[in-house]
Design brief:
Length: about 260
């Protein structure tokens, strides 16, 4: 039994079943970058998790543990939380790649000291990181990737029903291995701009050697920033393509987490 009986019979059993299904959905919404942002109220996440749980109650026949507040029931609930956190956390790697790219570009442009509060994580990130994060969010939503992620979350109940033994060292190693793709994607985003800034720095180095009286420090920073802005404008189509590929890779990684 659930160990808490309010006397409502089958209706109460469906309520506890919905609460149990909400654990995986709520944990996934807490870990995913968009809905897990500090700007999204906790009430909104609870409502979304409840709505998904209601749909899952109608689409699936997954029962709640017979003793939800016993030790086996709590262990099963903890397993649901781990699966939900893993499905949402995989997308964190994708949304961290633009911030890493912004760090590399900002170091070349002299904008490393310009930081802003990141609404996603609540920490401080480079000013360019805000631009890349917003761009990735627009692409992510524009491609309908959030709907595909919700479909993967629902599919996870078929691939790994509660008590299916999902938590294994190999699977945790697979999630940690996705971090390598994060750095590869960050390099792909920053490479066009960084190469142009490198050419600008080499040009100023030659000028400093040929004309020592030239105040290279007074000219280097503003021209470096202008070159960086021009490179961002020119490389905008390449950056958009790289972020589109990043969204596809992120969804592929989330699907790989659910593979047996």
């Amino acid at each position: 039994m659930i160990a808490m009986n309010f006397g409502f019979g089958p209706l109460e059993a469906e309520f506890w079943r919905m609460v149990f299904l909400m654990t995986r959905c709520g944990a996934a919404l807490f870990a995913v970058p968009l809905f897990g942002s500090n700007q999204v109220p906790a009430e909104v996440r609870v409502v979304l998790a409840g709505a998904l749980a209601v749909l899952l109650c109608n689409w699936t026949t997954i029962p709640a543990p017979t003793a939800l507040f016993s030790l086996p029931g709590l262990i099963s609930t903890a397993g649901e939380v781990v699966i939900g956190l893993a499905i949402g956390f995989v997308l964190q790697f994708a949304f961290a790649a633009p911030v890493i790219a912004a760090e590399m570009i900002g170091a070349g442009m002299g904008l490393s000291i310009a930081t802003a509060a990141d609404p996603v994580s609540g920490a401080h990130s480079p000013a360019l990181g805000q631009y890349f994060s917003v761009l990735l969010t627009v692409i992510f939503l524009g491609l309908g990737a959030h709907l595909q992620w919700f479909a993967l979350l629902v599919e996870s109940y078929r691939a790994f029903p509660p008590g299916g033994g999902w938590f294994t060292p190999d699977r945790m190693g697979l999630i940690a291995g996705f971090a390598t793709q994060m750095f590869v994607s960050a390099i792909a985003i920053a490479l066009p701009v960084v190469l142009l800034l490198l050419l600008v720095q080499l040009t100023f180095g030659v000028l400093a050697r040929s004309a020592p009286s030239l105040n290279i420090f007074a000219l280097g920073l503003p021209l470096g920033m202008l070159a960086g802005v021009a490179a961002l404008v020119v490389s905008a189509p390449l950056v958009a393509d790289a972020m589109t590929d990043l969204v596809a890779i992120a969804l592929g990684q989330a699907q790989a987490v659910l593979a047996r």
